[in-house]
Amino acid sequence: MSTLVRPRKGRIIAGVCAALAHRFGWPVLLMRLLAIVLMVFAGLPLWVYIVLWILIPKEK
């Protein structure tokens, strides 16, 4: 597992899904699909994504 940072390349909106995927060694597409499914079906609010956007530092 690597450190939790939002990458400069390969991100779509803020890089939160890409950061989590790299951290846990998962494919980025799988993490993005999981985030969408959780937001739609499990009620994961968008503000959780925004909070992670703020808390996860950018790659230097």
UniProtKB/TrEMBL annotation:
Record localization: Cell membrane
Membrane topology, from the record: Single-pass membrane protein
Main location: membrane
GO cellular component: plasma membrane
Record field: transmembrane: 33-56
Residue ranges annotated for the Phage shock protein PspC N-terminal domain, each copy included: 3-59
Region forming the signal peptide: none
InterPro entries: Phageshock_PspC_N (IPR007168), PspC (IPR052027)
Keyword entries, A-Z: Cell membrane, DNA-binding, Membrane, Transmembrane, Transmembrane helix
Pfam family, one: PspC
Any GO MF annotation of the entry: DNA binding
Name of this chain's protein: DNA-binding transcriptional activator PspC
Source organism per UniProt: Microbacterium azadirachtae
